Amino acid sequence: MAQHHHSNSRETLQRLVQKFGNKNKLQFFEHDDIGSENPKNIPPLVLLIGWYGSKFRFVSKYTAIYTRKGYDVLSYIPDSWELFSKKASLNGVEKILDMIEVDQKENESSFIVHAISNNGGLFVARMMALLDSNKNDYINVRKGYRGLISDSFPGVNTEDADAISVLAGYNYDKKLKKIYYLLCILLLLSCEQYG
Predict the structure, then answer these.
(1) Do β-strands 145-151 and 72-76 pair in parallel, antiparallel, or remain unpaired?
(2) Cα 177 vs. chain centroid, distance in angstroms?
(3) What is the arithmetic mean of pLDDT over 61-86?
(4) Structural domain spans, the chain
(5) What's the whole-model pTM score?
(6) Any residues with CB less than 8 A from the CB of 174 and at least 6 apart, and which?
(7) Which of 77, 97, 148, 165 is deepest in the core (most CB within 10 A)?
(8) What's the CATH superfamily of 11-154?
């Protein structure tokens, strides 16, 4: 898939991706020029998280859809060992969140996460846990986040994961945390009743 370059568009994010240095794990794809676009208007960003064992050529169909629709795409494919090493996984999550924090501070364009299968689900779970435990960090990530596409996630085995997926699109505050805990209790009770 060809990378398109337009003026005024996410130059800082592109430099951060190049600095990351591993083209097999992280790539940036700029939106297609769709004609009547305002050159000063930076499009929304899609963070596309690939599945275990995927390559960029496998996720390119998703990238192509988003770039044709006018979105920029930051595509990250965690290594297989990130499934088994929480420390390595959190390192990857932090690097991606750091990049998105810089991008959102600079562009204020908003972003969504499209996470695929086990790696995507694990990445999102660790991302949400990191955001929850670091309330004062990643202010621009929180401000720009618009939602989650959970694509082919494996069967959910905890009530927390169900609740997190339901609340993923909301900002974090005390009121929502109470709703989250209430939802966890309701899910637990329903699982006990039917399971």
Answers:
(1) unpaired
(2) 21
(3) 88
(4) 11-154
(5) 0.72
(6) none
(7) 77
(8) Alpha/Beta hydrolase fold, catalytic domain (3.40.50.1820)
